Amino acid sequence: MQKFVTVDEAARQHVLKALAAQPDFNQADPDGAAFAQRFDLHFPDLCRLFHFLYGSRPDWLDQLAALVLQCARSWVERPAELKALDAEREGNSGWFQSNRMLGGVCYVDRYAGSLDGVREQIPYFKELGLTYLHLMPLFLAPEPLSDGGYAVSSYREVNPKLGTMEQLRELAAELRANGISLVVDFIFNHTSNEHEWARRAAAGNPGYSDYYWMYPDRTMPDAFEHNVREIFPDDHPGTFVQLPDGRWVWATFHSFQWDLNYSNPDVFRAMAGEMLFLANQGVDILRMDAVAFVWKQLGTPCENLPEAHTLLRAFNAVCRLAAPSLLFKSEAIVHPDEVALYIDPAECQLSYNPLQMALIWESLATRDVSLLAQALERRHNVPAGTSWVNYVRSHDDIGWTFADEDAAELGINGFDHRRFLNSFYVNRFPGSFARGVPFQDNPRTGDCRISGTTASLCGLEDDPEQAVGRILLAHSVAFSTGGVPLLYLGDEVGQVNDYRYALEDGHEADSRWVHRPRYPAGQYARRHDPATPEGAIFNGLRRMIAARAETPELSGTRLIDFATNNPGVLGYQRPGDGTHVLVLANFSDEPQQLRPVTFSGFSAEAVDILTEAAVHLAEGLTLAPLQYVWLRVQPLQEK
Fold it and tell me: Which of 94, 232, 290, 336 suits 348 as a labelling partner, its CA being 20 to 30 A distant?
């Protein structure tokens, strides 16, 4: 009988033969044996995914073998302490779902000056309760055209103004010793036009020209642009930019950021090498930048294509071989249905929650929680083994990412509502409390996004007392819905907009720098004075952080909706073992009364875990304006 050999079997034998030929790789030693065990477990997935992407090429098997050899070498080079962490986290794969997780994010230079300055902040990070620190792009990038560090010239060199790769490695180790995981950006859709690969491509090297989408004339660019939208039309029209020699190169975002060509397996292997290098420096989580754009295909919008997901899964399989504890966090500011598709244990284990962020601000503006409550009921729960990263604001602008079809169900016209929100948050709407700044404002189309710190968007510059209430209310949602809460450092002491941003070279055309101010030393000095806005915000957040850490119901991400029957009051439940935490938040400017019947599914007695005060639900509940409570309740069916 004829014996058939499957693609997996043939590929496995081909790769094993290549591994056996490597004199520096010995399956008999502990490192080799550990890799061989992981190879047996994860190679079938990697083979299937790589074949899907590149199986039409005659050299795909050799490319796959070269990739696995890269993984084996990286594993051998991986420091012993990181291998120990791999083993620990393989036994506790849900470590990032703990109710003690708390994230912080900052720019190294603006917050601490340098990597050594970040190390000096570790005692403060521990005071705050951080377990996760995201350092914004810190790799070598051209100045002033760096797009805030997102135009990377080298993934293996730190910006010399910030420090060195050795200092980053030392910082990662010290953070790890203090229970803080290091998160950095992996900008893998594009490089700077000053990256060595781009320089060689610009010089006409055909091998490196194939690292990018380069064409000799407008034929193919015109064909692609028939379906592809402009992202930053103020920077350059269309999607391609012309080089001095007449060629055209794909640049989705800025003219100095050239998109990588992942249809070329050399690019996949090169970026896998950069990824594993960073993992071996002690990075715990990679923020996968612009995931929606990484795969291009003629005749499509080149966003959210199925191959983008396959690509992420293939990168994940690489990590399972050579850096098993490394996690991915997706950055996909797209339609909510598309955001959800990137969240998977085999793809991105963590994901920003842009919908919740946007709808917190929408609820503050409208004093109506209907859209936010709908989103929590319909779009919050994610697959087991994954988690949201919940935030009130980030380094980026605020875009109104809710789905028009969701809004229509509530009688809201999405286009008109976005125009209202833009007007409200840049203080063009009568009675607005916000002091935001427009970003990419287009009066012709009405399109606009919002820049501003949390404090300025909440009105701290004009009415500190009300603003503090809004700031804490917004964070009460991000801290209690489930996932990793993330603070933009400085927000915890009420840092306001930096209106001098345009005076800095390269920042004048980008209003997002208004909400990336430098370290506010004076405000941090007042954080323990409850009579100041800084103290009120800091103490309020610390109360939430401490209560959350002692509340097992707030681990994980599972959420159950709760109808308050009041458009001004948000409600949801976080289920635990026999008890739930019922969160209520009044987004209205007026006291709101919830009738006793609203709580008929619970026992009469509850406790607010933020204040430890007893609450008698049989009497109903009145919430003051901007008040929030986290009530430990007992569902009647679980008595």
Answer: 232
Q: Tell me, what's the pLDDT at 340?
A: 93
Q: Is residue 638 very low, low, confident or very high in pLDDT (cuts 50, 70, 90)?
A: low
Task: Using alpha carbons, list the distances in angstroms from residue 424 to 369, 406, 417, 600.
Answer: 17, 21, 10, 38
Q: Is the pLDDT of residue 481 over 60?
A: yes
∠ CA 382-99-168, nearest 5°, is: 95
- Considering the candidates 331, 344, 397, 406, report the single residue annotated as catalytic: 331
- At position 385, the amino acid (one-letter code) is G
| Contact in structure between 627 and 587 (CB atoms under 8 Å) | no
The answer to whether 120 and 529 are in contact (CB under 8 A) is no
The one-character DSSP state at 560 is E
Phi, psi of 351 (to 5 degrees): -150, 140
| Cis ω before 144 (30° cut-off from 0) | yes
pTM: predicted TM-score of the whole model, two decimal places: 0.95
Average pLDDT score, the chain? 95
Q: How does residue 6 score in pLDDT terms, banded at 50, 70 and 90?
A: low
The answer to whether 183 and 352 have CB atoms below 8 angstroms apart is no
The strand ranges marked E within 129-247 are 132-135, 139-140, 154-158, 181-186, 190-192, 214-215, 240-242
Q: How confident is the model over 240-252, as a mean pLDDT?
A: 97
**Reading across the β-sheet that carries 613-616, which strands appear in turn?**
560-561, 569-575, 580-586, 628-633, 605-608, 613-616
Give the separation between CA 364 and CA 457, rounded to whole angstroms. Answer: 10
Question: Does an H or E element contain 562, and which?
Answer: none
Q: Are the C-beta atoms of residues 630 and 579 closer than 8 Å to each other? A: no
Residues 381, 360: Cα–Cα separation, whole Å: 17
Sign of CA dihedral 484, 490, 492, 498: negative
Give the C-alpha separation, 404 to 290, whole Å: 22
CA-nearest of 428, 46, 22, 447 to 272 is 46
What is each CA distance from 495 to 297, 357, 463, 515, 611, in whole angstroms? 43, 19, 14, 9, 26
pLDDT tens across 41-82, in order? Answer: 999 999 999 999 999 999 999 999 999 999 999 999 999 999
222 catalytic, yes or no?
A: no
- As a whole number of angstroms, the distance between CA 33 and CA 38 comes to 9
- Beta strand 154-158 with 447-451 is unpaired
Percentage of the chain lying above the pLDDT 70 cut: 98
59 is catalytic: no
Please check whether residue 258 is in contact with residue 191, taking contact to mean a CB–CB distance below 8 angstroms: yes
pLDDT at residue 3 is higher than 50:
no
Q: How does DSSP classify residue 369?
A: -
What pairing do the DSSP bridges indicate for beta strands 132-135 and 181-186? Answer: parallel
Convert the pLDDT of each residue in 403-420 to its tens digit: 999 999 999 999 999 999
Supply the pLDDT for residue 235.
Answer: 79
Positive or negative torsion for Cα 287, 293, 296, 300: positive
Average pLDDT over residues 384-405: 96
Band (pLDDT 50/70/90 cuts) for residue 447 is confident
User: For residue 387, what are the contacts with CB-CB under 8 A and spacing of at least 6?
Assistant: 96, 97, 349, 350, 351, 482, 483, 484, 556, 557
| Tokens describing residue 146 | 């760096």
Q: Is the pLDDT of residue 1 over 50?
A: no
The catalytic position among 86, 289, 492, 534 is 289
